[in-house]
Amino acid sequence: MARFYITTPIYYVNDAPHVGHAYCTVNADALARWHRQRGDETYFLTGTDEHGQKVADAAAANGVSPQEWTDRYSARFRAAWDDLDIAYDDYIRTTEDRHATTVQKFLGAIYDNGYIYKGSYRGLYCVSCEDYYTAEALHEGNCPVHGRPAVEMEEENWFFRLSAFEDKLLEWYGAHPQATTPDTKRNEAVAFIRGGLRDISITRRSLTWGVRVPWDSDQVFYVWYDALVNYLTAIGYGTDDAKLATWWPSVHHLIGKEIIRFHCVWWPAMCMAAGIEPPQHVHVHGWLLVGGQKLSKTMAGEGAVRLTDIAPQSLTAEYGVDPVRYYLLRDTPLGTDGDFSLEGIISRYNTDLANNLGNLVARVATVVGSKCGGVSPASRDDSPLRIESAAAVTTAAAAWEDFAPHAALEATWRLIGATNAYLEQHAPWKMEPGPEVAAVMGDALEALRIITLLIVPAMPSTAREIWRRLGLTGDVHDVGWEATSWGGFPVGVSVTKGEPLFPRISSDS
Ligand code: MSP
């Protein structure tokens, strides 16, 4: 059986979840759901990144302890994901004991292997990135990502011998060109490595909010070194060898484009240094932008964008969970930047959901009710919709496999369009009850059954509802991908009509 271990980045708890985070999490969830549907043994991990200067500062600014702060904000992320129907298998918090144990064992292995030494570090630090910059990388002294001044920091701490991994990483990418996708992002990682790797400071003396360095009790690990290890904590590194062997290294890390260096350079090097395989695959996505600006929590604090208006729950309350999921999956391919707008959601909702999918479901149920006595006729083996369905299933499967949910949905909506066109062409609502109408409606019902299976990963509760209306038994989420082949609709089941699935939204609302 194939295995699929997928992760999101763990989110910083210095502020509340926003729709940029939801973009990544919904995409990871849909990919995990598709792999489950396909029958793969699947493990989906998300969680929160709770240590570091930035979180300690946020807690202090609000007059609460870091633990209290992180408990509160980690719960907010979890609530946002529950609201969005995110079916994670594990939700990791880096303040959990299990995580400290793994971080200490993993970095302990790197230390024992001779890749960690004591040194002194001086550099320009951006607290928002939790990262050092060279003077040349700054824009007039400001961080290129956040536009905030980088501050001079000097500390004596422990260094990771990253420079020892330059050739090994280049060899790794040479042998595994698909280890980072899309290709443009892999090229970016490789160019960074070719530019020369300097050793990096991995601990902090000035901070107590972190995981203790096991061989130096005066220091904690720098937040990124603790954070990356979360991917191993959840699958039992240092505690459950069988679980680790099941899921590592066949992992897929879904990440945003600004954290390529951490995931595609540092992380594989750390794995090599600890004596385990690097992660098999990192897929990099772009940013959702509003008027060309990133929806960053940090910038929101400066009033550049009003993130409070675009918290995930405010969207789901307005448009429904599945329409928001659909918009996030369909509108911005995983790999490019996308424009986020309420007009965009409304337009997708009205066009794709109300006019196409919703209309198809309503029409089919109405005509089966009025012309077929409310029960399903047989589909035909030589239906033109059979070819359309097979094409949609093949294209969608390849797209999910390829981390392209937007393309899987595009193919699905082509089938929805073809089924609506087929009904318009035959106009069964104008026919007398009889074999001709039965044939057309049998075909349409079968296409709709396949469409329902195709939308399971993207729109879990809509799929469940359509399945129920079609009179099909069991939970559609327990039905495998193999059921997408033509001819599975049983004859004689009762089809029910319901309320419109997606009542149109007027665009001035
Ligand atoms: N804590 C680190 C990740 C550690 S993983 C070992 C972090 N957290 S974050 O909360 O700042 O960002 C998490 C993810 O959210 C990143 O992949 C980032 O790209 C993504 N996004 C933040 N804003 C985004 C958009 N506007 N659009 C799309 N994704 C965005 O980095």
Task: List the SSEs and their pairings.
Blueprint lengths: L2 E5 L3 E2 L6 H19 L3 E9 L3 H9 L4 H18 L6 E4 L3 H16 L3 E11 L4 E3 L17 E10 L5 H10 L4 E2 L1 H12 L5 E2 L1 E2 L7 E2 L2 E6 L1 H6 L1 H4 L7 H7 L3 E6 L3 H15 L6 E5 L2 E3 L2 E2 L2 H5 L10 H8 L1 H11 L6 E2 L2 H30 L12 H18 L3 H22 L8 H21 L4 H10 L40
Helix pairs in contact: 2-3, 5-6, 6-10, 12-13, 13-14, 14-16, 14-17, 15-16, 15-17, 16-17, 17-18
Bound molecules: 5'-O-[(L-methionyl)-sulphamoyl]adenosine.
Enter the CATH topology name of the largest domain.
Rossmann fold
Q: Mind telling me the CATH class of the largest domain?
A: Alpha Beta
Rg over CA atoms = 26 Å
Distance from N terminus to C terminus (CA atoms, Å) equals 49 Å
Strand content: 5-15%
- The CATH homologous superfamily of the largest domain is named HUPs
Sheet bearing the most strands, described?
7 strands, parallel
- Quaternary organisation of the protein chains: single chain
Shape: elongated
CATH architecture classification of the largest domain? 3-Layer(aba) Sandwich
Task: Kindly state the number of beta strands.
Answer: 17
Secondary structure: helix percent:
40-55%
**Which ions and ligands are bound to the chains?**
5'-O-[(L-methionyl)-sulphamoyl]adenosine
Mean pLDDT: 94
Low-confidence stretches: 297-308
Note the total helix count. 18
User: How many structural units, i.e. domains?
Assistant: 2
Category from helices, strands and their pairing: alpha/beta
